[in-house]
Amino acid sequence: MFLTISLTGNDERPATDLGFLLHKHPEKAQAFSTSYGDAHVFYPEASAQICTAALLLEVDPVALVRRAKGQGKDRGGAPDAALAQYVNDRPYAASSLLAVALRTVFSSALRGECRTHPERAAAPLPLRIEVPVLPARGGAGLVRALFEPLGWTVGAEPIALDPRFPEWGDSRYVRLTLEGELRLSDALRHLYVLLPVLDDSKHYWISPDEVDKLLRFGEGWLENHPEQQLIASRYLSRRWALTRQAMERLELARLADADDIEVEEIDNAVDETTDTEEKPAPLAAQRRDAILEALRSAGAARVLDLGCGQGQLVGELLKDARFTEIVGVDVSVRALHTASRRLRLEQMGEHRAARVKLLQGSLTYTDTRLKGYDAAVLSEVVEHLDLPRLPALEYAVFGAARPGTVVVTTPNSEYNVRWETLPAGHVRHADHRFEWTRAEFREWADRVARRHGYDVAYVPVGPDDPEVGPPTQLATFTLQQITHTARTAQTAQTAQTVQTPKEESAA
């Protein structure tokens, strides 16, 4: 069985860095012994522009059968069962055998370790992975369903049973290509888990420690994968007790790792209370309440939740009938799948479902679908963008979409000193590109308001510390045309109220 990993590069960042990341020299062909045969690593091409590492696993069918019998897997069966143990697809098609070889040969790369190029190991790289023959129980559609939510562009070409007889149809094998910008360690972990899942036939005995292995190599991506249940079940050979254990632990990991929940855990560590005091609501809940209040005060009915994540705010908006149309937008297809499950969209009544829509899209590009709404919310979103990309978001939201009201929340970095569990100088979440002080946030918001014709007002969210301010800062932008209309209506109402006594007196 065969697999290649390719990296594209340039003169400044040569593709041959792949050799450092994999800890295998491009000018050498190396062999490694496994329990089922020999694994070979070599480089068909290695230049500054393109570097390809190949893993070839030569499986010894006799050793494979002996190991299976030693683990109690020789169950007998049909008369030709003995022959089938020796004549099968194991030496040729990617399976759990290849996954084990990946772990054996590229163990350091799987952990993301590279002493010579740590910055390259930690950064997304333009990768291309090819597996010429991959068993896929579920077909090309399942291959895409497993890899596309992880950020891959997937090519899954079915392999015909026999090209000479097309009427026989396709086999259960596909020719797989994956392209995308991901960390090498993430790419290897995806392969390690999903190759045996697609094959759906592990070659070794499944023990309880396989749950730990699944969670370890699935950390950071499996807890939010839309096919999580299928992955866990197949990886654990459909052992119900182990699958249930894995799903329970994945749910805990998902709750701990989700943006809103992770911040919530830190939030709950603040404002220590005595046994007799009432425990304050989590900051995440206070933040949603403040956003809802701002939207209600603005009289908004059609609302955009930009960067909706897993749909927590969308769910709260759905509870209030005054919000007649709610659109959640996120760049992550995986997050949208999770939001759909969380909201139970497929089980929702027709009238309620008509009020909500989830869209995939980037907030740094203009999108005509987002025009004409009463309000838009950017809740804990701006800090996830690199500062040079903020002007693109500003124009897309305030310049192009141009809703009547925009509500923005973001952490107040001054308050971070109050988090006992947060090391000095650290941001609250690993994906935050920055966190603003109150003065920095107001400077940015005032500039955006002036440039795009909005008025802006500020509200603290959470306990407002007299020294460092609140943990979350909220700004409400109101389009000046709407502000002017509201003021004119208020002035007219006041004039009518003043005029009425005079008319009564004259009468």
How is the topology of this model organized?
Layout: E1 2-8, H1 17-22, E2 30-34, E3 37-46, E4 50-59, H2 61-70, H3 81-86, H4 96-105, H5 107-110, H6 118-121, E5 125-135, H7 139-147, E6 153-160, E7 170-182, H8 184-199, H9 209-217, H10 228-235, H11 240-257, H12 259-268, H13 283-298, E8 302-306, H14 312-318, E9 325-330, H15 333-343, H16 350-353, E10 356-360, E11 375-379, H17 390-401, E12 405-411, H18 438-452, E13 454-461, E14 472-479, H19 480-506
Parallel strand pairs: 8-9, 8-11, 9-10, 11-12
Antiparallel strand pairs: 1-4, 1-5, 2-3, 3-4, 5-7, 6-7, 12-14, 13-14
Helix pairs in contact: 4-8, 8-10, 9-11, 10-11
Keywords:
alpha/beta; 507 residues; elongated; seven-stranded mixed beta sheet; seven-stranded antiparallel beta sheet
